Amino acid sequence: MRSIRVASVATLLTLSTLLAGCGDDGDGDADEETTETVTVEASTETTESTSPTDTASPTDVTPMDPTDTGDITQEQVEAALLTPEEVGPDFLLGAYTDESSPPLCDPEGTPVDEQVPPQVQGGTQIDHNSGDVAMQEEIAIYATEEEAAEAFGLATAGLACTEGSSDGAPVTIGAAQDVTAQVNGASGIGSSTAWEITADGFNGVVVATLAGRIVLATQFASAPQFDTSTLPNPVDVATDAFAKALAN
């Protein structure tokens, strides 16, 4: 699902890689059971795979500051990513691949990170132990706030349609939802937007945040037959991801 190449948010979507295995019944056909859609809700309560050995411990790295004009290191970005334990008890580290993907609304277009390259970026994939759900987080740091805003604008424009395409497969994109109050409310920094993405083989939610020089995106995707009521709320996960990015 290299979607949201948060890294350039550039993908702010391409749910293809992550979702490739979702809903597969073993012979290549998607499960046709009754589906339960992943929905965006505000909580009522307050070019390489990344492995556990690749991610620095937050205690070993000085936290990054999105308002700082200095350099942010790869180690700081990696340390700011969520761990499986921080997502939920039934999640484990998956195989994350850093790759560029065109916008869902413009499948022939240029990936955002090629138009506005980030200064440094990192990501992780976290899978549910059922094999039917995957969560991906990506953080991209740009040289300036203006470049981050430009990349974020291009990425969100790439989701501003109702019907898109991922690797040739049609997807439906829901209207953008402002979730700033939930994701950014505690810090008062930045803004966040969420989209629901659906296709024959998956249901998904993407949340993207712009804060200073940072663009952060989280993405949940699940097989249509999976009971998503047992999962963490995607907006809550995005809130946790942004809080950790700010403070480790």
TrEMBL record:
**Low complexity: bias regions:** 36-67
Q: Which UniProt keywords apply?
A: Signal
Which InterPro entries does its entry note? TonB_box_CS
Give the stretches traversing the membrane: none
What start and end residues bound the annotated signal peptide? 1-20
Region annotation Disordered: residue ranges?
Answer: 24-67
Recorded protein name is DUF5642 domain-containing protein
Question: Which PROSITE patterns does UniProt cross-reference here?
Answer: PROKAR_LIPOPROTEIN, TONB_DEPENDENT_REC_1
- Biased composition (Acidic residues) is annotated at 24-35
